[in-house]
Amino acid sequence: MNQQLAGYAPTPVTARMENHGRAMLKVAMQTGHDLFARTGSMVAYEGFVQYEPNPPAVRQMASQWLTGEGAPLMKCSGDGLLYLADYGADVVVINLNNDALSVNGTNVLAFDAHLQWGVERVKGMAKFAGQGLFNVQIAGTGWVALTSRGTPIVVDCGRGDDETYVDPDALVAWSPGLKVKGKRSFKASSMIGRGSGEAYQMAFSGQGIVVVQPSEDSTDRLRARG
């Protein structure tokens, strides 16, 4: 039986964060290198790992998440291997090198605690989305793990002069240096019986990337749930 299951066994550690399969994140934990992770995302760990729900750094940001459900992150510390997942969603690992990323709060799985982060309003979208859209901006040098409902596509917006248009419900993350504006249109779904009425897309231009998942997220874009 061990031979039959050998392909699913833990693999040697090669990086701080890496995929174990498409839907699980493996984090090499080390004392002094703490981690913020989505509350409830731990599925297994080896060694000595401690968890602090609603830590002070998160409480300070909590009011900006516009949700009464409490802070969506926990702080993880210790030594060992930590495995995280989010209901079978694909996991995307990114190593920031003095860079920044703007991430939809529902797609944040984990990031190094030493990175700078905060909740920010997406400029240029308030008139299209009522109160506006809020994202988590993460910056610095370190590791970030995102989730995607299916295998995402990463669009390089710097390859041409045309704008890139994305349904906000399918958006995962983008480079904060990109220019963002809203565009109203009629959803294609109204043509095939899934609804009707006016909708909007987000238009990106400039140098940077946009990460798009192949499934529209039906959750409230103003909330970041744990």
TrEMBL record:
<protein>
    <submittedName>
        <fullName>AIM24 family protein</fullName>
    </submittedName>
</protein>
<dbReference type="InterPro" id="IPR036983">
    <property type="entry name" value="AIM24_sf"/>
</dbReference>
<dbReference type="InterPro" id="IPR002838">
    <property type="entry name" value="AIM24"/>
</dbReference>
<dbReference type="InterPro" id="IPR016031">
    <property type="entry name" value="Trp_RNA-bd_attenuator-like_dom"/>
</dbReference>
<dbReference type="Pfam" id="PF01987">
    <property type="entry name" value="AIM24"/>
</dbReference>
